[in-house]
Amino acid sequence: MERSAKPSFDELDHRVLQALQLDGRAPFRRIAAALDVSENTVARRYRTLCTQGLRIVARTLPERLGDSRWLLRIQCAPDATTPLAEALARLPESSYVSIDSAGTQIHCGITAPDTDGNETPVLANLHRMSRVTEISAHCLLRVYEGDPPAWYTKLHPLTPEQTALAPPRDVPAPQDEDEPALLDDADRALITHLADDARATFPQLAAATGLSTATAKRHLDRLRASGLLQISTEFPPRHLGYRLMSYLWLRVDPSCLHDVGTALAGHRPISFAAATTGPYNLVATTITRSTTDLYRYLTDHVGHLPGIQYVETAPALRQIKRLA
């Protein structure tokens, strides 16, 4: 079988991708002005990136709605791994699903509504499956990196003027909010429509939701400014030459947990880092070009952070679902 040509990227492609990660809804004219190119050029590069896997989606932060996020590690029989991973990927509450390099463990992120301490339906169903041999569930306590994702912006940092594309926020970080946010019908209608296409125009949103254009804009501006709604830009890292995604499960001295999490968030290979419950109190995701790069990162950077007691590294063999 003939292998398809590998997508080629130049500096402008990287800049457009980074600008979209700063603000996935930024008009092409704003991006063009920031990058000093024409609006047509940005639109053309955007369309090409879309054919290569670019997705811009909207998602709410579960913590702002009183929900919680969990990371599941599911050990199962080899012949059951792929069917179960695909079934989990179809669930609306799952955000990502991947299979480890051994082909017997699934990593899955899910959102669980507040159930007064009762087990979530996903966990209950998994426990009843005969081909599942072990499950560990880790509740996210604080996210240091990944809300919204910022990995692409670390590759070739933009200038301070260009990073001004990022929309302003006018409230404290979502994880510092005490009371869950309340959504009205207009908010929910907008969120539903933006889930698959976060770049939908205000006239398109008005037509899809039955709201006026002005009302749609007012609600969306409020949702974004409050930090409740995040616009996430997703693009396959392999097209940029980064083919290895790995999970790092770390045990860290509690007194050093915040410092280690903050330090990891600033590292270029880190796409996600969060404090969790369970035997590992910090989990991170790395994106590297190769196992050699991963080794260098672990020895040159992670190994020098004070307070780390133990690190388990789990490369992902295949990603079934990304950024729902």
From TrEMBL:
SMART domains listed in its UniProt record: HTH_ASNC (SM00344)
Task: Check the record and name the InterPro entries matching this protein.
Answer: ArsR-like_HTH, AsnC-type_HTH_dom, Dimeric_a/b-barrel, Tscrpt_reg_AsnC-like, Tscrpt_reg_AsnC/Lrp_C, WH-like_DNA-bd_sf, WH_DNA-bd_sf
Instruction: Name the domain of life this protein comes from.
Output: Bacteria
Query: Which keywords appear in this protein's UniProt record, sorted alphabetically?
Result: DNA-binding, Transcription, Transcription regulation
What residues does the HTH asnC-type domain cover? Answer: 183-243
- The molecule here is called Lrp/AsnC family transcriptional regulator
- The protein's organism comes out as Streptomyces monticola
